[in-house]
Amino acid sequence: MDRTQLIIVRHGQTQWNLKLIRQGHLDSPLTEKGIAQAKALGERLVRETFTALYTSDLGRAVQTAQMIAEATGHQIVTDPRLRERHLGIFQGLNGDEIREKYPEEYRLHRTVGPSYVIPGGESVQQQVARNVDYLNEIAEKHLGETIVVVTHGGVLSGFFRHALSISFEAPRRFEFMNASLNVFTYEAGNWMLRTWGDVSHLVSGGSSDGDDP
User: Fold this and answer.
1) Counted domains in the chain
2) Tens-digit pLDDT profile for residues 126-172
3) Residue 77 maps to which CATH number?
4) Structural domain containing residue 194
5) Is 11 a catalytic residue?
6) Distance, CA of 81 to CA of 57 (rounded, Å)
7) How far is the CA of 133 from the CAs of 52, 124, 128, 159, 201, in angstroms?
8) For the chain: N or C, fewer Cβ within 10 A?
9) Among 11, 86, 109, 142, which one carries the catalytic annotation?
10) Among the options 74, 84, 105, 142, which is catalytic?
11) pLDDT tens digits, residue range 22-48?
């Protein structure tokens, strides 16, 4: 039976990652370290045989994908379904600012769980359903192939839970690092995790800050 392999990578470090600002569907450019991380990803992925390069259409992911493409020669396919969770009124703020400006919404965000829709945004359940539907679609499209997907920390977090059947209510006990390689295989409608959080291509490691408030 045909098996698809997805190498899913998180974008390089951004300026807002450093400041712990919630990005969501807003954006900030890669830092110098983030650019170096993206270039290292490209050098690492040159050693892989893959047929397609997909990315979220948000700038930080596209910037990372472009540096991979410069190294590997692939065309980039962008799609908004690979975007991070839309954080609505929380976007562009750090944790302290969210708690001060929107105390009730922050309380609901922390207590209601994955069904809570941030005003102006979406819930974790909505985000993960959007991501998983598209990852299933491209896995079916590329049966028997290896493809690379550039996306975000929240997408990786949600997909990790989906693939391993971990409840979205369970506390997070795992990291998702900038410019990390995470490998999943898809076969007969099922996902299996093969590699998680590989940053061996980075000299100084990654960061898990910024995308999972």
Assistant:
1) 1
2) 999 999 999 999 999 999 999 999 999 999 999 999 999 999 999 99
3) 3.40.50.1240
4) 4-87+124-198
5) yes
6) 9
7) 18, 14, 8, 11, 30
8) N
9) 11
10) 84
11) 999 999 999 999 999 999 999 999 999
